[in-house]
Amino acid sequence: xxxxxxxxxxxxxxxxxxxxxxxxxxxxxxxxxxxxxxxxxxxxxxxxxxxxxxxxxxxxxxxxxxxxxxxxxxxxxxxxxxxxxxxxxxxxxxxxxxxxxxxxxxxxxxxxxxxxxxxxxxxxxxxxxxxxxxxxxxxxxxxxxxxxxxxxxxxxxxxxxxxxxxxxxxxxxxx
Length: 175
Fold this sequence. Notes:
Elements: H1 12-32, H2 40-50, H3 55-81, H4 89-105, H5 113-126, H6 131-162
């Protein structure tokens, strides 16, 4: 079971996280649904993963998430550009992404985002008729994820200003 200072417990933290998710998902849906060929689903998922009732936690999460999104996108694009998109490339791209993320990037928070993004790029390529169309669709999906990440951080900051969390009670001094 996940624990930690930002895990949504009962009380103010749970309600703040719910407010973040409501405001963020409403904003993402309203903005992205206006564009043809863009789905807000990936952006909403990224926004939920990037928002937090505590802005410092959200800031750390988005940094890790962005780095790993770029790693996954780069690996996915390299695999797409070398020989086009074929289903057998997906497991090799995922293995390469996991190893690059583990041995070179070494950011433990959100490291799974790298292979997820590589899979998103490769799968987008598989669903298209050409490599260039697949790359274009894949990059749009990555842009949706990045948009969601930034909305998550912005909403975390905005809600923290409008609705500050109570300060944690410190140790009581005894005379």
